[in-house]
Write a structure and sequence with these properties.
It contains 4 helices and 4 strands; from the N terminus they run ββαααββα. It is mainly alpha-helical. Strands 1-2 form a two-stranded antiparallel ribbon. The chain has a two-stranded antiparallel sheet with strand order 3-4. The longest helix is centred in the last third of the chain and has 35 residues.
Length: 118
């Protein structure tokens, strides 16, 4: 039997006064901004209100301590170099976590099956 294991990486400051996190949803939003060159269009493509998208980006910037997007009025929005690095670093770490979890889950299932019989 095949199994699927999942875990979602969330990065959050230890400062309890800072709201929000940097995680999968924010990465999807940043990718949408890179694709659409607009926070508003990226939010709409995700079925999200602009105000929620703006809050997600603002809170992630607070958590990470850097600007992730640049707004240019009517011209839209673009990722900053930090925003591009944030996506890349998140995806790399998430892939590494998925690989570790998949390996450990296979070992766990093998251990369970070796110790029991149906």
């Amino acid at each position: 039997m095949k199994y699927k294991t999942t875990a979602r990486l969330v990065i959050q400051s230890c400062d309890k006064d800072l709201p929000g996190v940097f995680g999968h949803g924010c990465v999807l939003l940043l990718q949408g901004i890179a694709r659409e060159h607009s926070l508003n269009r990226a939010a709409k493509s995700m079925g999200m209100a602009y105000s929620k998208a703006w809050r997600i980006v603002n809170e992630a910037e607070g958590q990470l301590g850097c600007k992730l997007i640049e707004r240019d009025g009517a011209r839209g929005s673009t990722l900053t170099p930090a925003g591009e690095r944030a996506i890349e670093a998140y995806e790399t770490l998430q892939t590494e976590i998925n690989n570790v979890i998949a390996t450990r889950a296979d070992t766990l299932i093998a251990t369970i099956n070796a110790e029991s019989s149906i």
